[in-house]
C-alpha cells in the first residue's frame, strides 16, 4: 500500500515518489528535539560564551534564551499542528506570505540547519581528538583543524558529517531508532555529570555573578549576558527540527505540539543546570576551549569519568548533527516540491521513502563547511539565521489569525497577539546583540539567495 502523499501548497505536485513515510510518534519527536538541541550548546558553546561574554551569568543567558524560545515554541506548536507538512518555517511562510518570501526564509534556513550541523561537527571533532589524545593518538595538525584554526581541513568533522548523511539516506525509521538510543545514553551521562559535579562545586567561582563590563558592548556586564543569550540561542535550534518532521508524523495535530514543547522544556532545564555546574567547577575565563565539559571533569580529577564524559559528548554531538542534517534535508524537499529547487530534491527512495538526493547534497555541502570554517564564526552565523526564522514564525501566527481566522487549529497559542509579539521582540533584541560582522555575513548570504532565485526559482514558479 502506498504511503499517503504529503499535503502541498497550491500549485505543487505530489505523488508516491514524493511522499515521506509517516512513522514518527510523540516520543520519537521529543527524542528528535533532544537529539538536536542537546549537543554543541552544552558541550562546546558553553565554554566560549562564559569566557568571552557572560562569565558565571552563563546560566542567566540560557534562561533568557529559553524564555525567548518558549514564546517561539508556542507559535511553532500552533503552526505545526495546523500545517503538518515537511518544511517548517519555509512552509509556514509560503502559506501566509507567498513563494518569494518563502524562498528567502528557506535560504536562511540553510544557515540554521546545515551550518548548525557543521558547527556541531567541528565540536565533535574537538572531543574526538581529545579522547584519542588520551590514548596517545594524534592527527597531523594539517588534518586536525580548519585554516582559521591552524590547519588545512578538519578531517574528523568531515568524516562524521558524511557518515551521518549515509545513515539519513536510508530511512527515517532507522535514523529515528538510532537517534533515540543515542539520546537516552546522552541524557544519562549528562545527569551523571551534574550529580558528580555538584559534589565538587566551588561557589566562590560564581562571584561576581555578572562580571564588570570590560569597556565594550558584549564584553561581560549585562550587555554580555544578552550577547551570550544571542550566541547560545544556537543551542535551542534543535526544537524546530520537530516542526520539520510534522509531515512524517502518524498524528501530527497531537504529536507535534507535544514534541516541540516537551523537548524545549527538558533542554532548557538541563542547559541552566550544566551552565551552573561548569562555572562552579572551573574559573570562567579558563573555559574557552573546544571541550569545556571535559576540562571541568579533569578539574575534579576523576580520569575514568572524564573518558565517560567525552564519550557522552561525542554521542550528544552526533545526535545533534544527525537531526540538523535531517531537518535541512526536509527543507530542501519542501522547496523542491514547490519547484523552487530542481525536482530531483523532492524525489524519495521507492523503498526507504527518504529524500536521498536532497540529503546527499546537504551532506556534501555541510562536510565542506565543517572542514574549512572555524567554530566561532559558524556559531554566530547559525544564531542570527535562527533568530530571523523564529521572528517570522511568530509573525506568521499573527498573519494567519487575521487572514484565515476560521481555519482549524488543533493547538492555539494562548494570548496570541501578546505571545507572538513578545516572541518577535525577543528575537530582534537578541539579533541586535550580535556583532556587526555577523549581520554582514547574513546580508551576503541572503544576497546570494536572491541571485539564485532570480536565476532559477522565479522562472520555474512563473509557469504555475
Automatic annotation (TrEMBL):
GO terms for molecular function: amino acid transmembrane transporter activity. The chain crosses the membrane at residues 28-51, 57-79, 100-124, 151-169, 181-201, 221-246, 258-282, 302-327, 356-375, 381-401, 413-432, 438-456. One of its GO terms (cellular component) is membrane. It comes from the Bacteria. The keyword Ribonucleoprotein does not apply. Keywords: Membrane, Transmembrane, Transmembrane helix, Transport. It holds the Pfam family AA_permease_2. InterPro entries: AA/rel_permease1. It is found in: Membrane. It is a multi-pass membrane protein. PANTHER family: CATIONIC AMINO ACID TRANSPORTER 4, INNER MEMBRANE TRANSPORTER YGJI-RELATED. This is Basic amino acid/polyamine antiporter, APA family.
Amino acid at each position: 500500500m502506498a504511503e499517503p502523499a504529503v499535503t502541498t501548497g497550491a500549485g505543487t505536485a505530489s505523488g508516491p515518489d514524493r511522499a515521506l513515510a509517516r512513522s514518527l510518534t510523540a516520543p520519537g519527536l521529543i527524542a528528535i528535539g533532544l537529539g538536536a538541541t542537546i549537543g554543541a550548546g552544552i558541550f562546546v558553546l558553553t565554554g566560549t560564551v562564559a569566557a568571552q561574554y557572560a562569565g558565571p551569568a552563563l546560566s542567566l543567558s540560557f534562561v533568557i534564551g529559553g524564555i525567548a524560545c518558549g514564546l517561539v515554541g508556542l507559535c511553532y506548536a500552533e503552526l505545526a499542528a495546523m500545517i503538518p507538512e515537511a518544511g517548517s518555517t519555509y512552509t509556514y511562510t509560503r502559506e501566509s506570505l507567498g513563494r518569494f518570501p518563502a524562498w528567502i526564509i528557506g535560504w536562511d534556513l540553510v544557515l540554521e540547519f546545515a551550518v548548525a550541523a557543521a558547527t556541531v561537527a567541528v565540536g565533535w571533532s574537538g572531543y574526538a581528538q581529545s579522547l584519542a589524545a588520551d590514548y596517545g593518538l594524534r592527527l597531523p595538525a594539517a588534518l586536525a583543524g580548519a585554516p582559521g584554526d591552524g590547519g588545512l581541513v578538519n578531517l574528523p568533522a568531515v568524516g562524521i558529517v558524511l557518515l551521518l548523511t549515509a545513515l539519513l539516506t536510508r530511512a527515517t525509521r532507522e535514523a529515528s531508532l538510532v537517534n533515540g538510543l543515542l539520546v537516552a545514553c546522552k541524557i544519562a551521562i549528562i545527569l551523571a555529570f551534574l550529580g558528580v559535579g555538584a559534589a565538587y562545586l566551588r561557589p566562590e567561582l560564581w562571584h561576581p555573578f555578572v562580571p564588570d563590563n570590560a569597556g565594550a558592548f558584549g564584553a561581560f556586564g549585562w550587555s554580555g549576558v544578552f550577547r551570550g543569550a544571542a550566541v547560545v540561542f544556537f543551542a535551542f535550534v534543535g526544537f524546530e527540527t520537530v516542526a520539520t518532521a510534522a509531515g512524517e508524523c502518524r498524528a501530527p495535530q497531537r504529536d507535534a505540539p507535544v514534541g516541540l514543547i516537551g523537548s524545549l522544556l527538558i533542554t532548557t532545564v538541563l542547559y541552566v543546570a550544566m551552565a551552573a555546574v561548569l562555572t562552579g567547577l572551573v574559573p570562567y575565563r579558563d573555559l574557552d576551549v573546544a571541550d569545556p565539559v571535559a576540562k571541568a571533569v579533569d578539574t575534579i580529577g576523576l580520569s575514568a569519568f572524564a573518558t565517560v564524559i567525552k564519550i557522552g559528548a561525542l554521542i550528544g554531538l552526533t545526535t545533534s548533527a544527525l537531526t540538523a542534517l535531517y531537518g535541512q534535508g526536509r527543507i530542501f524537499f519542501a522547496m523542491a516540491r514547490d519547484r523552487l529547487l530542481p525536482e530531483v530534491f523532492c524525489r524519495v527512495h521507492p523503498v526507504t521513502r527518504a529524500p536521498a538526493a536532497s540529503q546527499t547534497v546537504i551532506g556534501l555541502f555541510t562536510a565542506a563547511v565543517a572542514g574549512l570554517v572555524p567554530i566561532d564564526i559558524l556559531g554566530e552565523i547559525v544564531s542570527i539565521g535562527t533568530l530571523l526564522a523564529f521572528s517570522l514564525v511568530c509573525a506568521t501566527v499573527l498573519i494567519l489569525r487575521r487572514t484565515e481566522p476560521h481555519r482549524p487549529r488543533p493547538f492555539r497559542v494562548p494570548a496570541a497577539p501578546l505571545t507572538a509579539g513578545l516572541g518577535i521582540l525577543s528575537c530582534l533584541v537578541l539579533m541586535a546583540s550580535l556583532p556587526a560582522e555577523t549581520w554582514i555575513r547574513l546580508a551576503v548570504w541572503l544576497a546570494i539567495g536572491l541571485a539564485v532565485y532570480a536565476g532559477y526559482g522565479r522562472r520555474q514558479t512563473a509557469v504555475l
